[in-house]
Write a structure and sequence with these properties.
heterodimer; A: 316 residues; mainly alpha; 3 domains; two-stranded antiparallel ribbon; 14 helices; 61% helix; 6% strand; B: 209 residues; Rna Polymerase Sigma Factor, Chain: A; 11 helices
């Protein structure tokens, strides 16, 4: 093996893609060639450097948002004619229909479905002997139909089986002691796009901040919510929590986010000062000292410094 | 090659609902017959990994969300054409790869018209991956940020196919043969892409190693 061969095989060697005999030949060459040896070392350093690249991990709420958006897109897809064509044309043996054939099929399908779904008496499900009820009395009520996934007419009975997704507006009322009510609120907090709803949810959850199933979600919101107003509202809820290491860590995480809003970071500094005094929390105190010494933001640094000076004056 | 794809899929925790417990071919057949619940279960088996991959390829959560949706809509629309000739995971990731490749090509042609820098002077990617770990002091954080910036720029310098092959090899640890299959190309082409990608990265990051 010469240096050119080695150079060509280098990426495969680094990524363990070489057959055993070629690998052995590469290793033998490296042992004898100082140039290729340093090349190998350089590649190894490059690999380490690239491995250190920060990879954005999907935030849990991002996955939730993606699923919701996909769900809605699929609903639209199912309601559209495209889906009907895709479903029926392959059954008719038409894989790549010309435009005219597709248009004709569309018309035929429209008449067919209209005929099938016309109001008439009959059995809802074959074998069930009762009159066809109007949709409003089938339990759908005022529900919104978000998608129809299957319509199966039965020519023998004249009935039809419809598989659909329906959404209904619901109003839940209950105490915050109710686990189900809390679950819905936590879901709204983590998944709902409208920040106004998230703020209202936080207001409702504020009194439950010490509940073990609620507290982590409130702390998560304080750390990560994209909306400043929501984060400030979460801080209000955090203020009412019993002081513990998780609460402290959440506050420290926020105050160490250089890109976070300075007003929010300032409010967190106040909170740390409160606990440094009231709970004699050394960790909070030390964090304030670090902020006063190093924080790149003037407002946060001076606020921390002023608080420390005031604390020193009180102690004296 | 299926092994590699299953390796990706294997990271996903199994859902415990009864439908989720159904075996994959049965789920696929039900989804092909229009069963949305079965399709949802299939999505949930793979979507975490798909989103992670999309996020690695494009960096920004907004764009990753678009890729996620585009990929699964394509899967939904073409599921009836899946003939069980390969593993479902292979077929799915092939769709995802194509969506990612198309996106990178579009991005590349956009970048040829306008500079990749945002108004703040940094590529958008780094707004999403700011290194704000509390443990880093300001100098370390700045240095780490600079390195991230340089790596990001170097990766942007790769062609879409080189970028994808490198991403799958270096960060996902897939075998070249599997990568070739996923990208609809040969193992040899994947090998050449990897070679060119590492050469370009070595050149672009020479002063850092």
């Amino acid at each position: 093996m010469n240096c050119n061969d080695f150079n060509e095989n280098l990426p495969l060697l680094m990524y363990d893609e070489l057959p055993v005999e070629e690998r052995a030949a590469c290793e033998a060459h490296v042992a004898a060639c100082s140039h290729c040896h340093s090349l190998l070392e350089e590649s190894s350093r490059l690999q380490t450097l690239l491995k250190g690249r920060t990879s954005p991990e999907p935030a849990p709420d991002l996955l939730v948002r993606c699923r919701q958006a996909l769900d809605e897109a699929l609903d639209r897809e199912e309601m559209g004619w495209g889906a009907a064509l895709r479903e029926w044309l392959p059954r008719l043996g038409i894989i790549r229909p010309a435009g005219a054939v597709a248009a004709l099929s569309l018309v035929v399908l429209g008449f067919g479905l209209g005929w099938t779904l016309r109001p008439r008496a009959g059995n809802l499900v074959p074998g069930v002997e009762k009159d066809l009820s109007p949709v409003s009395t089938m339990g759908l009520g005022d529900a919104r139909i978000s998608g129809i996934s299957q319509v199966s007419p039965d020519p023998k009975t004249g009935g039809v089986r419809i598989t659909l997704n329906a959404e209904r507006r619901m109003t839940l009322e209950g105490s915050l002691d109710d686990d189900n009510v809390r679950k819905v609120l936590v879901y709204a907090l983590k998944s709902y796009d409208n920040p106004g709803i998230r703020v209202d949810t936080l207001e409702a959850l504020r009194a439950s901040g010490n509940n073990p199933s609620v507290q982590p979600e409130l702390l998560y919101t304080l750390r990560n919510d994209p909306n400043l107003g929501v984060r400030l509202e979460a801080l209000k809820a955090v203020r009412r929590m019993n002081w513990n290491p998780e609460v402290r860590q959440a506050l420290l995480d926020v105050v160490h986010q250089p890109k976070a809003n300075q007003g929010l970071r300032g409010a967190v500094v106040d909170e740390l000062v409160k606990h440094a005094v009231k709970d004699k929390d050394e960790v909070a105190l030390s964090a304030l000292e670090q902020l006063a010494a190093n924080d790149p933001n003037d407002y946060v640094r001076l606020k921390s410094l002023r608080a420390l000076v005031a604390l020193g004056a009180d102690n004296n | 090659m299926d092994g590699a794809c299953l390796e990706l899929a294997g990271k996903i925790p199994a859902d415990s609902s009864p439908v989720a417990g159904a075996d994959e071919p049965a789920l696929i057949r039900r989804a092909q017959g229009g069963d949305r619940t079965a399709f949802d279960v299939l999505v949930r088996r793979y979507d975490r990994e798909v989103l992670r991959l999309a996020l690695k390829v494009v960096g920004s959560p907004e764009e990753a969300t678009d890729l996620y949706q585009e990929a699964f809509l394509k899967v939904y629309r073409s599921l009836s054409r899946f003939r069980f000739e390969s593993a479902f995971s292979t077929w799915l990731y092939r769709v995802v790869m194509n969506v990612c490749l198309d996106h990178l090509r579009r991005q590349k042609s956009r970048n040829e018209v306008q500079p990749p820098e945002s108004e703040a002077g940094e590529p958008e990617f780094f707004h999403t991956v700011a290194d704000d770990r509390p443990g880093l002091n300001p100098e370390q954080a700045l240095r780490a940020k600079e390195i991230q910036h340089r790596i990001g720029r170097a990766l942007e310098g790769l062609s879409p196919r080189e970028r994808l092959v490198f991403e799958l090899k270096h960060y996902q640890g897939m075998r070249l043969r599997a990568i070739g299959d996923l990208c609809g190309t040969s193992e040899e082409t994947a090998k050449n892409c990897l070679f060119r990608a590492t050469q370009k990265l070595r050149f672009a990051l020479a002063d850092l190693v």
